[in-house]
Amino acid sequence: MRTTRTRLATALIATLAVGALTTACAGGSGTAPTTAARDETVIIGTGATPQTLDPVLASDVQTDFTVGGAYDKLIDYDEDGAIVPMLATEWVYNDDATAVTVTLRDDATFHSGNPVTAADVVYTLDRIKALGVGVASFLSSYASSTAVDDTTVEITLSGTNTTFVGALSKVYILDSALVSEHEGDDHAQAWLATNDAGSGPYVITDYTANQQATLERYDDSWRFDEARPASLVYRYITESSTLRDELKSGGVDVATGIVGTDLDALASVDGLEAQELPSPLQLFVMMNTQEGITADPRVREAIKLAYDYDGHITSILSGRGSVASGLVAPTVACRVDAGPTEQDVDEAKALLEEAGAVGATVTMAYQAQIPEHQKAATLLQSNLKDIGLTLELQTVTYPEYVAMIESPETTPDLGLLWDFPYYPEIGPMLFRVYDSQFIGQTNYALYSNPEVDALLEEGISTVDPDAACDLFTQAQEQILADDVSVNVSNPVTTIMLRDGVGGIRYSPTYQLFDPTMLVVTE
């Protein structure tokens, strides 16, 4: 077993404790990652702190952002929303889109040196189905798969689904020979939480939970690019002001999650550049439609009308974003633009009084480590007080929130979160978030409307894209009419880069940016 550690600058080592992570680099012909000096290392500062490195939870932005460089997908999307090949070179649906045959490239190897084969694809998909968490919500129509030979996989679906191949853009392929050695009784979740079993351009070589991860370039990657940094170091920093200061001092080269006031303070700093990317993100307040006072649509509408949307954009986002005008961001095709919601305190008070809910208390779970969420929670608390509601706030991680919504009894009245299409098709997101079969999983509002279910399920199985869009449009209109959520904002993704680092561009399957795009420019 060979591992390497990146030698960082003395100042960086002094401030961070780096824990060893056992990597899959033994046995095989793969080239071990080389140790890089500080000038060959790009340090990323981010508040996207993973709870696990298991790629089954790549549905979580925090996990996806760290593991994205260490694993390969079968397919991906380019910045124009077109599917592009990755490990897969070809994919063909059968006549009724109930099965798809995938052909793999034959020159990819895992970090262990094991070849990437059809058996690894089958193992990965079966593991996702067995666990039923994370990216499993994108693969609900997956039934089974078979390795025909080393480079051919036949995937059987439970019904017609023309969007299934797109969902594979969120599936990272595992080294089945390696992972199966550590399966235990949890499908290797504990082992993969801190270990690497990928074939991506980088190997995870060190990891200290909540502090730091180190990735070193895998020079035997089928998509090797010598312009990439020899090492990537993720420093998990949740405070925007700390990220700002680390950029100024040189302790961080790339940063995400900096609030508007700190971005303004960095605008005049030499050697730094702000890059704004379109974003699929949207900030929501999802309302419990089954339990408590938010089961009353009048209360849900009152909460929606109470919020200070303009204040959110000007004060929280410093103008870097817009008020949401539908269920998805403007970057997504086939969306219904209902126009931005406007605050109306008087109408909110009248609705609350009509519902007999004046003076009531509601609970809201939110992720305090995300600056926009933290400030939005405080603003909503103040706005609801103005209409006669007391808002109790509960800080959670995203996995904790997902566990809370497993039953109506533990689901909070409100949940503040980002959501978005994980790949650029609107139907799968609507299906995942609003179809009643996903109550207890990814239907955050516990929303159940048979008419919407029928529209979404027909849309997912409709081969004609125009007909499918019409069905998804009807579903959106009904969901919006039911006031299931407060549709808050569409923030712009702002990345701060130090001179000498570049390559970032919009990638619709990454909520922040694709770390494998980073290059050293000087």
From TrEMBL:
CDD domains: PBP2_NikA_DppA_OppA_like_7 (cd08512)
Segment forming the signal sequence: 1-26
InterPro entries attached to this UniProt entry: Peptide/Ni-bd, SBP_5, SBP_5_dom
Keywords per UniProt: Signal
Gene3D superfamilies listed in its UniProt record: Dipeptide-binding Protein, Domain 3 (3.10.105.10), Periplasmic binding protein-like II (3.40.190.10)
UniProt key word Signal: yes
Coiled-coil residue windows: none
Every Solute-binding protein family domain range: 83-423
Keyword match Signal: yes
PANTHER family associated with the record: PERIPLASMIC BINDING COMPONENT OF ABC TRANSPORTER
The name this protein goes by in its record: ABC transporter substrate-binding protein
Natural source organism: Microbacterium yannicii
